[in-house]
Amino acid sequence: MLSPIALAGDLSVRALEKSFGAARVLDGVDLDVAAGEFVSLLGPSGCGKTTLLRIVAGLVLPDRGRVTLAGADITALPPHKRDVGVVFQNYALFPHLDVAGNVAYGLRAQRRPEAEIKRIVERMLALVHLSDFAGRSVRGLSGGQQQRVAVARALAVEPKLLLLDEPFSALDRKLREAMQIDLRRLLREVGTTAIFVTHDQDEALVMSDRIAVMNDGRFEQIDAPAALYDKPKTAFALDFVGRSTRLAGKVATAANGALEIDTAIGRLRAAGNFLPGSPVVVGIRPEKIGFGPVAGPANTLRARVSEIVFQGSLLTVHFRTTDGDRVLLEAPHGTATPYGVGEEATLHLREADTLVFPAA
C-alpha cells in the first residue's frame, strides 16, 4: 500500500441554490463528504448534479449558500485557489504535450522544482500503470489510457478534493467496468476525497462509499449503496437505482404499522404507516420474487408471463397484470421456469421485501 499523496479534505455544502433564468437548478441542497470518502452524485439529466459539481470546482458561482473544504470557506474563491482537482468528461488533455508533460502541467504552474516534478510524475504514472508511456503523445492513447492520464494529472498537485464529471461515458462497457475498479483502487490508495457525477446507477453502486440521488435540484436520498438499494426512501430512488416492479395500490386496512394493500395482482401485506384508502405505490425488487415458497410471512401474486429474456448470467421473466402493470422476476441463469409465455403464474414474495411509498 502506497502512502497517501494528499491531505484529504472534508467538504461541506450548505443551503446551496442556483437558478439559470427562471429555471431553479439547485434548491437549497446540503451535502457533507468526509475526508477520504468517495461520494457519487446520481440522477437524470437536468437534475442539478453537474451544476453542483461546477459550483464546488469554482466554475459557477451559487446564488445562495456556502461551500467549505477542510474547514475553509471557498465559496467565492477562484478555481486555482481551491485546492480542488477536476477530471472532465472529455479529459481535456493538452495534445501538444506528451503523457509526462500533461501530468506535470499543474506542477509547473505551481513552479515546483524540476527534480520534485520528475519524482511526482514518475510516481503518478506508476500509480495509473502508465510508466512506459511517459514520452508518448496523448493523441495515440486509447480512451482508457487518456482517462488515466487525466486522473494522474489531477492527483499530481495533491488536491484536497477530486471532482470527476462522468469520466467514463465515452468508454465501451468492458473498459468502463475495468476503469471503475482501477479508479476506486487508486483513490483508496492515495486517500483522496472524491465526488463523482454519473447518471449510470451500476457505476455508482460499484464505486461509491455513499450515493446521493438527485431529482429536480434536491437530494432524494443519500446513503450507502446497499442501504439505498434495499431500503429506498422514495419511489424515485426505487426507480432510479436498480430495476424494480411498481404497482399502483390502495390501502385496504392499516393497524400497528401493518398494511393490507389492494393491487392488480391481489391483496398484498407490507409494513408502513398509511391511512386506509390512501393511494400508494408498491415496489418490489425483481430478485426478491420467486416461483416457489419463501421463508417467513409471504405474499402470493398472480400474473401472466409475457416474455422470458436470457441476459447471460441472469434470466428475466416479464409478467403482465390485468390492468397493464408490469412485474419483473430475475433468477440466475439455469433456473427452471415452470411457466411459459402466455401462462398465468403463481409467484411468492416475502412481506419484508414488499416496499410501500406514497403515490405521486
Strands of the widest sheet, in order across it, are 6-7-8-3-9-10
Q: Give the full name of the CATH homologous superfamily of the largest domain.
A: P-loop containing nucleotide triphosphate hydrolases
Average of per-residue pLDDT values: 91
**What fraction, in percent, of the residue positions are helical?**
10-25%
Order of helices and strands: EEEHEEEHHHEHEHEEHHEEEEEEEEEE
Which features characterize this protein?
Rossmann fold, alpha+beta
Q: Would you mind describing this structure in some detail?
A:
A hairpin with a 2-residue loop joins β16 (298-311) and β17 (314-320). The strands form four sheets. Strands 6-7-8-3-9-10 form a six-stranded mixed beta sheet, sandwiched between helices. Strands 13-12-11-14-20 form a five-stranded antiparallel beta sheet. The model has no long low-confidence stretch (mean pLDDT 91). By secondary structure, the chain is an alpha+beta fold. The chain starts with 10 loop residues before the first strand and ends with a strand. It is 24% helix and 36% strand. It folds into two domains: 11-237, 3-Layer(aba) Sandwich (Rossmann fold); 243-358, Nucleic acid-binding proteins (OB fold (Dihydrolipoamide Acetyltransferase, E2P), Beta Barrel). α2 packs across α3 (114-127), α2 runs parallel beside α4 (143-156) and α3 crosses α4 (143-156).
